[in-house]
Amino acid sequence: MTNEEKLQKHYSYFDQFLRRAKREFEIKFSQEIKQNCLLIDFDIMKVLGAGSFGLVVLCKDKRDSKTYAMKLMEKCNIIKTRQLAHTGAEIKLMKNINFPFIVDMHGFFMDNVYVGIVMSFANAGDMFTHLRELKKFEEGLAKFYAAQVILAFEYIHHLGVIYRDLKPENILVDLQGYLRITDLGFCKKIDNTRTYTLCGTPEYLAPEIILSQGYNKSVDYWSYGVLVYEMNAGYAPFFAKDPMRLYEKIVSGKYSCPPFFSKQLKDLLGNMLIVDRSKRYGLLKNGVKDIKSHDWFKNTDFDQILSKKVIPSYVPKVDNETDTRYFESSSKKLVVKKASTDEFAKEFDDIFVTPKA
């Protein structure tokens, strides 16, 4: 079977899958989300990371003895930082999204103090950690990763959702060496409309965001181009210490490629990192097929990758499902807070949930 025949077979199968996924998503997305677990259902084993949002901890479900990652956020911090809507959107989307290369949600809960999201644990760490260790990815490995990301984007875009926060830190690697896109806090269901919110990581911002122009999935295809560049080069195409200078470079759309970039890679980037959205790949008549059928992806079997039948050229070394070597060691211990009353019950219940009976 030729590469073109493989692509046609893939398009036929994947288009059917996307249509079915869209129907199911639309039905589920309008439904109320209920809590399906409690904090006391888990044994917390170790703090994996900390941020302004709260903590991510390694935990074990007492009910099935399986290991998970738990994002634990204090409700008072969510209110203080005005992240209530983002948190609600993240939970609602994670509940209804089901794709191999996007992190899945095992459950979520709320008590008087916390909102907790329980997810599968991808214990090989994030892409940023491996990119920093390897300096840059060999082009074949970068292509393998890029294929998974574009499949994930094609899936969520078909659901009418944009991602808006692509970067190596938000891409996890699992035991088999495959990817899981995580942190859906900036995702937004916009369907065929536009949005104007300024959000994302500076080096990955699309020109239309910086210029305060209305945007849609265009920003994800720009950030995809930035990711493909960074995976192959080891650094982003646009960089500057001064944020304003960085934004000027992005808006100009001028960048240079290292000499070791292949001709095919340069051509793909030239069609992704383009300021004029009417010419950017992913947004043209053929949509994402312009990317997947590009010469850089020649001989890439998207069906085999989707089925996880391709053996990655790089598989991080981990001993078992609780090995946390790829996460920054933290001596911080979680002291679980308790409160007799919930000061924010109405705010959270109004946004996205009905309390567990």
UniProtKB/TrEMBL annotation:
ATP binds at residue 71. It comes from the Eukaryota. GO terms for cellular component: cAMP-dependent protein kinase complex; cytosol; nucleus. Its EC number is 2.7.11.11. GO terms for molecular function: ATP binding; cAMP-dependent protein kinase activity. It catalyses: L-threonyl-[protein] + ATP = O-phospho-L-threonyl-[protein] + ADP + H(+); L-seryl-[protein] + ATP = O-phospho-L-seryl-[protein] + ADP + H(+). SMART domains: S_TK_X, S_TKc. Residues 298-357 form the AGC-kinase C-terminal domain. Keywords: ATP-binding, Kinase, Nucleotide-binding, Serine/threonine-protein kinase, Transferase. Residues 42-297 form the Protein kinase domain. One of its GO terms (biological process) is imaginal disc-derived wing morphogenesis. The keyword Kinase applies. Pfam families: Pkinase. InterPro entries: AGC-kinase_C, Kinase-like_dom_sf, Prot_kinase_dom, Protein_kinase_ATP_BS, Ser/Thr_kinase_AS. Belongs to the protein kinase superfamily. This is cAMP-dependent protein kinase. It comes from Ceutorhynchus assimilis (cabbage seed weevil).
